[in-house]
Amino acid sequence: MTRKTDHYSYTMYADPAMAQSFDDRRFGGPIGELIAGTQARIVANMIGRLHDRRILDVGTGTGRAALMLARGGARVTAVDASEDMLHVARQRAADQLVTVEFVRGDAHQLQFEDRTFEISVCLRVLMHAPDWAQCLGELCRVADRIVIFDYPSATSLAAIEAAGRRLTRAAGRRTEPYRVFRKARIEQALRRSGFRVRSIHRQFVLPIQFHRIVGSRRFTEFSEGLLNRAGLLRLFGSPVTVCAERCES
How far apart are CA 55 and CA 116, in angstroms? Predict the structure, then answer.
């Protein structure tokens, strides 16, 4: 039986070279910068006041979101399964004179008591996790009020790319064969943990990889603005960032 830790989401990131190049590959160039800036703004808007709030960042990677939240005055704890990624995150925090508590841990079984944090944040993790529902349940368990996470939509063009990556992986090539999600499955999983969707944000209609290939922020903003005005973003936009709140008991 395959262990969770044999999954690509563990093995690919347990690599110093991967950790060092992670931010440049994901957030480098004009489109990467646009993605990072939009993500930071959306998360901050969903949270509202940051000062002195207790926030957990799960799957922090090299700490981009954790550092952003801490710079806003939040008391941030950040968890990742990869010590190599955490090493880079700690270096970045020290260079920026920002205080974050970085802890090695697994999103499937967080080492915190129920409702320890006001807010839990988890970005670009559920799409790769071996058991996404268990991870989401853990995010809800440790959050007192709000959970913020994202996912690629099954009704978007990302579904085609995801299928292509699964085929590539099956052929023996190194890749990350992420999953896509339907809104109903997300809402059902949240209800099981006593949460409900408060707000969502959809980012792109066209695939992110397409925008990266074009490499023009002006083209991306123009084309996506046009598609949004045509009503397509609401239907097919991805990734979807969700802000969920605990239901009143």
Answer: 9
- Among 199, 205, 158, smallest CA distance to 181 is for 158
| Structural domains of the chain ordered from first start | 4-245 (3.40.50.150)
For residues 130 and 79, give the distance between their C-alpha atoms in angstroms, rounded to a whole number: 17
Instruction: Please tell me what DSSP assigns to residue 153.
Output: B
Are 149 and 57 in contact by the 8 Å Cβ rule? The answer is: no
Alpha-carbon span 145 to 246, nearest angstrom? 5
pLDDT in tens, 168-198: 777 777 777 789 999 999 999 999 999 999 9
Cα–Cα distance measured from residue 136 to residue 123, given in angstroms and rounded to the nearest whole number? 11
Contact 124, 60 (CB under 8 A): no
Region of 106 please: left (phi>0), alpha (psi -120 to 50) or beta. Answer: beta
For the whole model, what pTM was predicted?
0.93
Predicted confidence band of residue 3 (pLDDT cuts 50, 70, 90): low
